[in-house]
Amino acid sequence: QLQLQESGPGLVKPSETLSLTCTVSGGSISSSSSYWGWIRQSPGKGLEWIGSIYYAGATYYNPALKSRVTISVDTSQSQFSLKVSSVTAADTAVYYCARIPHDYSIGMDVWGQGTTVTVSS
Amino acid sequence: DIQMTQSPSSLSASVGDRVTITCRASQSISNFLHWYQQRPGKAPKLLISAASSLQSGVPSRFSGSGSGTYFTLTIISLQPEDFATYYCQQSYGSVYTFGQGTKLEIK
User: Fold this and answer.
1) Interface contact flag, A96 B43, Cβ < 8 Å
2) B55 to each of B36, B75, B99, how far by Cα in Å?
3) Which of B46, B50, B95 sits opposite A49 (nearest CB)?
4) Residue A2, Cα to own-chain centre: how many angstroms?
5) Tens of pLDDT along chain A (121 residues)?
6) Which residues of A touch B (CB under 8 A)?
7) Model confidence at B71, in pLDDT bands (50, 70, 90)?
8) How far apart are CA B70 and CA A14, in angstroms?
9) Do residues A80 and A4 make contact, with C-beta atoms less than 8 angstroms apart?
10) Do B98 and A48 touch (CB under 8 A)?
């Protein structure tokens, strides 16, 4: 069955760029029925949708983060990636990748296990 | 952005009880409302889509209802594994937003 796995550094220095990758297995990242999204969870702000990408490259971002966020996809590697620039302590969170069905009437139905990112010098 | 407000924030109940969690949207979202269960240290798990459609494999003791701005998640005959945090989420607006969560604890 479809599985997602996040990877990347667990510690990032303030003002630097956070970079994470999500590897998709057990299914096709090029599925026309899927978007691929990033969500984060921090004690202070709960669950926050960061943005999503379609396999063909179309991206959708949360306006609250849009100026600092880039999501990209590499279909040859079955991966999509997140970059958050100029991080501060407020970006400390558990970051999840998830499948978001193209059908908006269906919720985020497959999640990675999550990876903890701490912003600290 | 559409704001999602859950109540209560926490709830104590016993095994076998029936509980209801509510979720209100700041504007009408039709039925583009989903419910998740999150256990400590785990990712959220989708329980219900489109306000009332149970995901495959989710026990029938879970049910959802509502439309517009008011939604409920009901769990009948609580089981030990149901004690977790529950979130609602809307997919109507261009920015997906979640409720703040309801922590269901054992009394």
Assistant:
1) yes
2) 10, 14, 19
3) B95
4) 16
5) 999 999 999 999 999 999 999 999 999 999 999 999 999 999 877 899 999 999 999 999 999 999 999 999 999 999 999 999 999 999 999 999 999 999 999 999 999 999 999 999 9
6) 46-49, 60, 62-63, 96, 98, 100, 104-109, 111-114
7) very high
8) 41
9) no
10) yes
Q: Which two tokens stand for residue B94?
A: 């261009």
**What span, in angstroms and rounded, lies between the C-alpha atoms of B95 and B79?**
34
Q: How far apart are CA A85 and CA A52, in angstroms?
A: 17
Report the distance separating Cα A42 and Cα A90, nearest Å: 8
Rounded distance, CA B35 to CA A40, Å? Answer: 17
Contacts of B7 (CB under 8 A, 6+ apart): B21, B22, B24, B102
Facing residue for A109 by CB, picked from B55, B87, B100: B55
Q: In B8-61, where do the E strands start and end?
A: 10-13, 19-25, 33-38, 45-49, 53-54
